[in-house]
Amino acid sequence: MGRVYVFVNQKGGVGKTTSAINIGAYMAEAGKSVLLVDFDSQANLSSGIGVENAKPGVYELISGSAPIDQVIRKTSTARLSVIPASIDLSGAAVELIEQEERDLFLKKALEPVRNHYDFILIDCPPSLGVLTLNGLAAADAVLIPMQCEYFAMEGLSLLMQTIKRIQKNLNPQLRIGGIFFTMFDQRTRLAQEVVRQVSAYFKDRVFRTIIPRNVRLSEAPSHGLPISQYDPSSTGARSYKSLAEEVIERGS
User: Fold this and answer.
1) DSSP code of 206?
2) Against a cut of 0.90, is the pTM above it?
3) Contact call for residues 83 and 37 (beta carbons, < 8 A)
4) For position 176, which CATH number holds?
5) SS3 label, residue 14
6) pLDDT tens-digit profile of 182-195?
7) HSE of 151, CA atoms in CB hemisphere, 13 A
8) Which of these, 88, 113, 102, 168, lies nearest to 135 by C-alpha position?
């Protein structure tokens, strides 16, 4: 059975979508079959992987208006597919609140293809709302990208509380797949201190690989390409390749 990972951080701008795209791409290049799920109405993952026409997509899937085989698209990377999102997904959050089993819609929708992929990677919105709760309920493990700044540490505490509630009420098998640092600037004392404190507390839950600030990582989504295709020799590319290898190793 394939592994389902969800990328979660209620703070925006931490590299969550960038990480989902690039880890997924390097997993695929390593020979794994990977499905990306864009579960954010901003649809940044969809555009960042080169999918322009996002309908039918994940909204149509969870609303029952399109079967899963009609919403999965191929990407420019072999063995890497995506279920895209559109702005319609923002309305789904309101619709789901009023329905029974509102936090299990994504899990049920993905069940028919779970065994078709080695990894399913879900990119959630920067919040702890109903869409993110659906992602957590559907996943085996949580991958937490963390920017190296003070407020990120406060947000991590809140996220851990949410994960514990999900484990208690919806998904007892959910675990912390790992925490990794993004946008790291080794010149700043704060960044180094955040890495030290989080690593000391969470120990082996923290990935060894740290993603540095890298302009090529910022440029790649505007071309609809993962960094492995846009600039495979860049520092950011080498870092994400290493991180993907770690994720595969932990998931095997």
Assistant:
1) B
2) yes
3) yes
4) 3.40.50.300
5) coil
6) 999 877 888 898 89
7) 6
8) 102
CB atoms < 10 A from the CB of 163, how many? 19
Q: What angle do CA 117, 233, 3 make, to 5 degrees?
A: 15
The set of long-range contacts for 93-99, using a CB threshold of 8 Å and a minimum separation of 24, is 93/41, 93/129, 93/130, 93/131, 95/63, 96/62, 96/130, 96/131, 96/134, 97/130
| Sheet containing strand 34-38, strands side by side | 73-74, 80-83, 34-38, 119-123, 3-7, 141-147, 175-182
Distances (CA, A) of 199 to 132, 134, 186, 239: 25, 28, 16, 18
**Structure token pair of residue 51:** 């999918």
Looking up tokens 């080498």 gives 238
Instruction: Provide the CA 233 distance to its chain's centre, in angstroms.
Output: 23
For residue 232, the 8-state DSSP code is T
- The first and second tokens of residue 169, run together, are 């009420």
> Is residue 29 a contact partner of residue 232, using CB atoms and an 8 Å limit?
no
Angle, alpha carbons 175-176-182 (nearest 5°): 155
Domain that holds residue 209: 3-251
pLDDT (tens digit, 9 = 90+) per residue, 9-62? 988 888 999 999 999 999 999 999 999 999 999 999 999 999 987 899 999 999
Query: Position of tokens 């860049």?
Result: 234
How many independent structural domains does the chain possess? 1
Q: What's the CA gap between 88 and 10, in Å, rounded?
A: 21
- What does the block give as tokens for 211? 């993603």
